[in-house]
Write a structure and sequence with these properties.
11 strands, two-stranded antiparallel sheet, 9 helices, about 35% helix, nine-stranded mixed β-sheet, alpha/beta, about 200 residues
Length: about 200
């Protein structure tokens, strides 16, 4: 039976390692439930996205999930049908900014930085912002530390992740009205045949 290595980044509540060292999470359970119906031995790896992406490109990982589709990624991978939508928003710990910022251009005019996770694709609205207006962090935990800090002003956060960790946030966090965005998420595959098998079961 062929083995498949399946990777994703640490992103609770969607996929994470619990205190017993077990992989858990809603997206993990969804992907696993489909592969459990296919004729493969499967192994899951949860790590920083930069590591997962590098291993996928190098052929050390066969499948990666909770991925946004881009033209660049379509050159190196086969993508599943959409498996869910994610909601992302620009958030702040500053109530004055929450009331002041109404559109992306306001961020540039005020010359503030956006905290984001390095290597993530957030969609055109965020991805096309000049890098001079961005501060990069390795993962959601590091981004949370920034959001908790006195120096923080603005960050891009998955709303589901934000709701999951709100008890760990020391400050009031505001999701800025009108600056939330829907992202379509997919599973990407090294082999087209495996992708096609997966897609047949998504429909069910």
């Amino acid at each position: 039976m062929k083995e498949l290595i399946i990777g994703a980044d640490y992103f609770p509540p969607y996929q994470y390692i619990d205190k017993d060292g077990e992989v858990k999470g809603s997206d993990y359970e969804f992907v696993k439930s489909i592969f459990d119906k296919l004729d493969y031995n499967i192994k899951f790896i949860i790590d920083d996205w930069s590591i997962i992406e590098k291993k996928f490109i190098n052929g050390e990982i066969d499948v990666a999930f909770q991925v946004q589709k881009t033209k660049e990624r379509e050159k190196i991978a086969f993508f599943s049908k959409k498996f869910r939508d994610a909601k992302t928003g620009i958030v702040t710990n500053n109530e004055i900014l929450y009331k002041t910022i109404k559109k992306i251009e306001d961020i540039f005019n005020l010359e503030y930085f956006l905290g984001i996770i390095e290597g993530y694709k957030y969609g055109d609205v965020i991805d096309k912002i000049d890098k001079n207006y961005k501060k990069y962090y390795s993962d959601s935990d590091e981004l949370l530390k920034y959001l908790n800090s006195a120096e923080a002003r603005l960050a891009v956060f998955d709303i589901g992740v934000l709701n999951n960790i709100k008890d760990n946030i020391d400050r009031d966090i505001f999701v800025i009205d009108g600056l939330t965005f829907k992202r379509e998420l997919f599973v990407m595959f090294k082999e087209e045949e495996v992708r096609d098998e997966f897609n047949k079961l998504i429909d069910k």
